[in-house]
Amino acid sequence: DGYDADYMLRKLNEEYTEWNLEMNLNKTECLVMGGNGTNLIMEYGATEKNCSKYRYLGSWISKEGGSEEDINNKLIKGKIAIRQLNSVI
């Protein structure tokens, strides 16, 4: 829930501060899976934007919890790469 997200984000920010790192709150987004998609208003006044899909380590994850769109995109990119290689051979 929102309280847990606020707590985790606050703790993460504290840890970043200890290592002289800075979190860019303007780029921070949240993805709620299986729930309503409302923006989170954090304790310290920041608003975290809700998004319907999120790119994590190069893969797209949707709020429905699936990655079917990501798999289809990777298949298409693979087919394009094979066609380009076949034209060279």
Radius of gyration: 18 Å
Biggest pleated sheet = 3 strands, mixed
The pLDDT mean sits at 79
Beginning-to-end CA distance, first to last residue: 55 Å
Tell me the overall shape. Answer: elongated
Query: Which class best fits the helix and strand makeup?
Result: alpha+beta
The H/E string reads: HEEEEEH
Number of domains: 2
Count of DSSP strands:
5
Unreliable runs: none
Protein name: Reverse transcriptase
What are the SSEs and their pairings?
Blueprint: H1 2-18, E1 29-30, E2 40-41, E3 47-50, E4 53-56, E5 59-62, H2 68-88
Parallel strand pairs: 1-3
Antiparallel strand pairs: 2-3, 4-5
List keywords for this structure.
single chain, 89 residues, alpha+beta, three-stranded mixed sheet, two-stranded antiparallel ribbon, 2 helices, 43% helix, elongated
Polypeptide structure, described:
It is elongated and about 60 Å long. With 89 residues, the chain is an alpha+beta fold. It folds into 2 domains: 51 residues, no CATH class; 36 residues. The chain has 2 helices and 5 strands; from the N terminus they run αβββββα. The chain has a 3-stranded mixed β-sheet, with helices on one face. A two-stranded antiparallel ribbon has the order 4-5.
Summary, kept brief:
The protein is of the alpha+beta class and 89 residues long.
